[in-house]
Amino acid sequence: MSSPNLYLDVHILQSLPPSNINRDDTGSPKSAVYGGRRRARVSSQAWKAVTRKAFKDLIDRSRIGERTLKAADLIAECITAQAQELSADASVLASDVLAESGIKVSDATADQAGQTSYLLFISQGQADKLAALAIEARRTGEKLNKRDVKHVLSQDQGVDVALFGRMVAEAPDLNVDAAAQVAHAISVHAVEPEFDYFTAMDDRQAEDTAGAGMIGTVEFNSSLLYRYANVNLPLLAEQLGSWAFAAEAARAFIQAFVTSMPTGKQNTFANRTLPAAVVVQLREGQPVNLVEAFETPVQPGDEGGYLAGACQALRQKADQVEAAYGLSAERTLLLRLGPSTEALAGLGEELTLAELADQVAVEVARRDQP
């Protein structure tokens, strides 16, 4: 049987070359002060967004959601697909079924016609079932049943909805608690902003004309990031309706979170890298973020590079937490690249990413066994 407090901790060390994958309102790479030093930062929202996008290649479309102002359009498309004869009225029927749940949709005369007042997270499966309710009500001439509508929105949560949650201001009973928490990624060392001064030539400029057609600067930095996330596995199973489905979701989350990357300035910097080290721990009691390992900035080694020092600091902090709090992991899985990660050797079973994701799914699925 499963513990009511069972968590999946994911720790990642990933090196980024010159890049600007997550910008602030001025175009500068996001940053934060930690341990008294300026660090590179990538927001949790940025990494959750690309993780959700990666689910499309890992999970059946019916089991993932869309976060949109145009939920009525999504439901209207489902109505048309299920009942072609109702296509002319699909938008009205979709708005009606959402309104029955307490979610308001602007009318056809509004500036934002047919839109909700905020982004609504809804799974494809829920959209299909809401469409079916709207079709049945139109065909039978009966009023939509509010309880049935709310029941649909309370069941069949998409994997991304279950992991990252949903807030419905107009109908709080439709809120979904997020099973996953994602930390802002920060560099394990101090960083200073750098600037790329560039010029662009005008291809049609006369040969005897000096100067560039455009000049400018792009701000960037390079860093070794510590990334962390955790998943409340019992809550995930509850949101998805079964441990078997939660196992599929956990496998997809590991694959998507590890390999995804925010896309800011990718064409400029071609910064796509993969993590040098991934540590996944299954633990009871509470999740543990090991970022304190880097509260004192890591210093480059004798031959340069931060990875060896970061791995040593991460291993030391993991051992200290286990010794002081007794929060030993039930199982630790490890992916590491090269000799610079040697400090992590022996911390857990060394696997490929595919093997690691599969083992996570096995561990989650067996929680359903008596």
Describe what you observe in this structure.
This protein is of the alpha+beta class and 370 residues long. The protein folds into 2 domains: 6-59 and 179-200 and 221-368, no CATH class; 66-157, no CATH class. The protein has 11 helices and 12 strands. Strands 1, 2, 3, 6, 7, 8, 9, 10, 11 and 12 form a 10-stranded mixed sheet that branches. A two-stranded antiparallel ribbon has the order 4-5. The longest helix is centred in the C-terminal third of the chain and has 19 residues, at 307-325. The termini are close together. The model has no long low-confidence stretch (mean pLDDT 92).
Report the average pLDDT across residues.
92
The secondary-structure class comes to alpha+beta
Beta-strand fraction estimate: 15-25%
Number of domains: 2
Helix content: 25-40%
What sequence of helices (H) and strands (E) makes up the elements? EEEHEHHEHHHEEEEHHHEHEEH
Number of helices: 11
Shape: flat
Determine the N-to-C terminus distance.
5 Å
Number of strands: 12
> Which stretches of 5+ consecutive residues score pLDDT under 50?
none
The biggest beta sheet reads: 10 strands, mixed
Give the helices and strands, then pairings.
Layout (H helix, E strand, L loop, with lengths): L5 E14 L11 E4 L2 E6 L1 H11 L10 E4 L2 H12 L7 H11 L19 E4 H17 L5 H9 L4 H6 L15 E3 L2 E3 L6 E7 L13 E19 H8 L2 H17 L6 H4 L7 E8 L22 H19 L5 E6 L12 E2 L2 H13 L5
Parallel strand pairs: 11-12
Antiparallel strand pairs: 1-9, 1-10, 2-3, 3-7, 4-5, 6-9, 7-9, 8-9, 10-11
Helix pairs in contact: 1-8, 2-3, 2-4, 3-4, 4-5, 7-8, 8-11
